[in-house]
Amino acid sequence: MIVDPDVVGLSRLQFALTALYHFLFVPLTLGLAFMLAIMESVYVMTRREVWKRMTQFWGVLFGINFAMGVATGVTMEFQFGTNWAYYSHYVGDIFGAPLAIEGMMAFFLEGTLVGLFFFGWDRISPVKHMLVTWFLALATSLSALWILIANAWMQNPVGAAFNPQTMRMEVTSFSEVIFNPVAQSKFVHTVSAGYTMGAMFVLSISAWYLLRGRNIDFAKRSMTVAASFGLAASLSVVVLGDESGYTVSENQKMKMAAIEAMWETEPAPASFTLFGLPDVKTRETHAAIRIPWVMGLMGTRSLDEPIIGIANLVDDAKLRIADGIKAYDAMLVLRENKDDAQARAILAAHDKDMGYALLLKRFIDDPRKATPADIQKAADSTIPNVPVLFWSFRIMVACGLYFIALFAYAFWRASKRRLDGRGFLRAALWSLPLPWVAAELGWIVAEYGRQPWAIEGVLPTALGASSLTAGQVWISLGGFVLFYTALAVIDGYLMVKFARKGPDGLGMWPKQADTLPVTAQTA
Amino acid sequence: MFDYDTLRIIWWALIGVLLIGFAIMDGFDFGVAALLRVLGKDEHQRTVLLETIEPTWEGNQVWFILGGGAVFAAWPLLYAASFSGLYVAMFVLLVAFIIRPVGFNFREKMPDPRWKAVWDYCLIASGVIVMLVCGVAFGNLFLGLPFRYDGDLRMSWEGGFFGLFRPFALLSGLISLSMLLAHGASWAAMKADHVIAERAAKIARIASLVYLVLFVLAGVWLAYGIPGYAISGPVAAGGLSNPLAKQVAVGASWFTGYMTHPAFWAAPVLAFAGALGVQLYVGRRGFGGFFSSCLAVAGTILSAGLALFPFLMPSSLDPASSLTVWDASSSRGTLLIMLGVTVVFIPIILLYTGWVYRVMRGRVTLEHVRKSHNMY
Questions:
Q1: Inter-chain CB proximity A78 and B94 less than 8 Å
Q2: What residue ranges in chain B does DSSP mark as E strands?
Q3: Distance of alpha carbon B195 from alpha carbon B212, whole angstroms
Q4: Percent share of chain A, pLDDT over 70
Q5: Is the predicted pLDDT of residue A519 greater than 50, yes or no?
Q6: Going along B163-209, which residue ranges are E strands?
Q7: What is the distance of C-alpha A140 from the center of its chain?
Q8: What is the mean predicted confidence (pLDDT) over B139-162?
Q9: Residues 6 or more apart from A25 whose CB is under 8 A from it?
Q10: Mean pLDDT across B192-202
Q11: Does the beta-carbon distance from A99 to B69 stay under 8 Å?
Q12: What sections of the protein cross the membrane (chain A) (predicted)?
């Protein structure tokens, strides 16, 4: 049975919108949690009240954001089951485990400690409270680790094999799933992106206070923390992002080729296209500005390995589809008679390509009856949306490089104790949205670039959907759009309101004074 | 070490533990939230009620998140079939869950009473909706749900949202509602200022009485009015997880398990004892009232789970497609690994959860609320 294409399209749209929305809040939680822990540690070491006030004030903004992150995260867990039921059945044996472990190892800790962060100030000693904050920060990053192990398995499905009796993938080596190289590079890249976002958030809002001449001492200290943390984070996000790119080129050649709009295989070492207008119809890139050698060095870390172009990869896909049909045929035989030795041998030899036969299901019911034209269509469908990936990637990288420059400059100014300069402060303020732009584009590169696969090479997205009616998905999609928009308005309003109020407006900091009066320091 | 079927039974029990954990821990948050404007007559009283749950509700809700994740990992067929089949109901439930984190936090962000009232009603609605939907969904399991599998094990569903509101399922929803209202009220009676606690104790007694009557009624209805499911024919020991490999007969009694294993009766007895305990101890010193309510919650879920065993989700459309303990699990390897992880982490979770409750121990008084501002 083939799922209604409208259901697939709507479910994809819903998943993308809710994931991108969830991802507005998660990286900020990741970053701010560590900054809170750092600020509070300084408080515990120096016992200077200003650092406690900093932790508490940024903690208020953290709390608003955290609530949104938690709220929208539940949606993600539900959606695998509600909209991607066949996916859940097909790979739940592997994919479910990291999600459950995330709950036990990370989210439980996070959820239990966050209440104590807010309500525990007067109930536990400063050292204990600081430990609570550190464990909270650690738990948020651990949470990211397990989610990314699950996600990395979608990009690079290791340690599993297809079982024709249960019609699903089953785990063969759990350690391969956990130590998936893609998971490691994705984890460090993603959490660094979160840390960068947290740092920018604090840097920008502090810059605004300084521009207004408010909370000066408070803002300068916050900025110093943000500049140093942000510099380390942005360096890590770019350097480890390159690592992430390298692992992509190892196992998702098509994604890599699409990002680079590399239609044909170039002789090694390939050039990097700095600018260009990829044309999907003619399969060329117009007005390209190329830098020789750079891409080959980044993608393969060698001078003589070529990066395979899209045309060659489509040809490869055709071969794999033909191979996959053999596996599919053997699978059907085995379903009737699990002891058929010949079918077993065929499936064992070709099961790595069975997913490619499933690509045909979008075009015909029975992959075994595919014509060469069907195979060509299915092979062409392995090309993701090249222009979107090409530009998303370039804008994301440009943001990353800008972050390094901005934080390095901020760090230099902080070390000279010259955090004034209105030009610099304005740049810091207006850079606020950029980490969100970069993070969302990063998601698009990683996940939209994975299409047409839900699980790379194993399960096409179109097959993973639930057997729903389009009407049902319209109801939920409409509901999400309305409900999430309302929440976004309220969240944005509260964030701006509390950032504007600032520590002085919230009674955490004296108005029009640089330092805390003596009375407040003992309060 | 453990054979496949033993692991499946262990995981059946563990899902039960998580479900009971969710109902006990998150259940009183829902109960308190739903009673927010019944128990809390003014802003100070409502703040007291909220502060009895605000420091810990977030961690409590993870029982639900973890329950979902564990079902995904250990019973992927059940996860896929229930979530997609109950699509609209799940969406309603989801909205109720999304409202909570923002409701608790955003409510405290502005002093305007209208703002607070809006969030109060959101929290009340979310509490009532979760309690009802979970109960109705559970009740539907006994009636069977309209799904079947094809040879690819792709599930199709032939029913809509309103088809779920069948009389027995509605009764089950009311059991869940009354049980958790009593549970939330018992919590408030233990944790909130005495002014509120007295009112809460009264409500706990009434709600738990209603619960007890409905629970007995449901038992009688189930015994005499609802056909049970039974696997007919042999089940291959340690067989692979393919629900189409068995035959199912409808018409037996859901109480067959209780007849063959008299020990099962301990579960409904526990529920009774809990409800009686609430009548006796709620409103008194100590935590006897709340503890009794926990027993009632655990006893109720256990009673239902044991009656269903070995079925997880029976199919009314094609009984052979029903999901059971023997054919809806993950592979043996996954069950074993996840068991290892669970054995290590659940005790750690209980340890730090216990510590947080200890730190936050004691009643939240009106005096405390008047003196300090909310920490969120």
A1: yes
A2: 147-149, 155-157, 228-232, 247-252, 311-313, 323-324
A3: 27
A4: 96
A5: no
A6: none
A7: 14
A8: 92
A9: A65, A66, A68, A69, A72
A10: 94
A11: yes
A12: 20-45, 57-74, 94-119, 131-154, 193-211, 223-241, 391-412, 424-446, 473-496
pLDDT at A172: 95
pTM score of the predicted model: 0.93
CA distance, residue A278 to nearest chain B CA (Å): 39
Residue A77 to residue B349, Cβ atoms within 8 A = no
CB contacts, 8 Å: A94 with chain B: 334
Q: Would you place residue A273 in the very low, low, confident or very high pLDDT band (cuts 50, 70, 90)?
A: confident
Contacting residues for A108 by C-beta, under 8 A, at least 6 apart: B59, B62, B66, B345, B349, B353
Angle, helices B76-85/A49-83, rounded to nearest 10 degrees: 80
> How many CB atoms lie under 10 A from the CB of residue B144?
21
ipTM value > 0.90: yes
Q: Residue B325 is which amino acid?
A: V
* A158-168 mean pLDDT: 92
Q: Strands A168-171 and A459-460, how do they pair? A: unpaired
What are the helix (H) ranges across A252-309? 253-259, 294-300
Rounded Cα gap, residues B20 and B23, in angstroms: 5
Please give the interface size between A and B, counted as residue pairs whose CB atoms are below 8 Å apart: 246
Shortest CA distance to A458 belongs to which of A324, A347, A336? A324
Q: Which chain B residue shows the shortest CA-CA distance from A488?
A: B102
- Chain A residues inside the 8 Å CB shell of B334: 93-94, 96-97, 170-171, 174
Q: What pLDDT, on the 0 to 100 scale, is given for residue A515?
A: 56
Q: Which of B201, B193, B205, B199 is nearest to B52 (CA)?
A: B193
Residue A516 predicted with pLDDT over 70: no
* CB < 8 Å from A in window 315-344 of B: 330-331, 333-334, 337-338, 341-342
Task: Write the single-letter amino acid at B30.
Answer: F
**What pLDDT does B322 receive?**
96
Contact A63 B105 (CB under 8 A): yes
In whole angstroms, give the CA distance from residue B98 to residue A67: 9
Contact call for residues A328 and A360 (beta carbons, < 8 A): no
Q: What is the mean pLDDT of residues A41-48?
A: 96
Q: Which of B69, B88, B95 sits opposite A77 (nearest CB)?
A: B69
| Short-list B344, B312, B341, CA closest to B329 | B312
DSSP A306: P
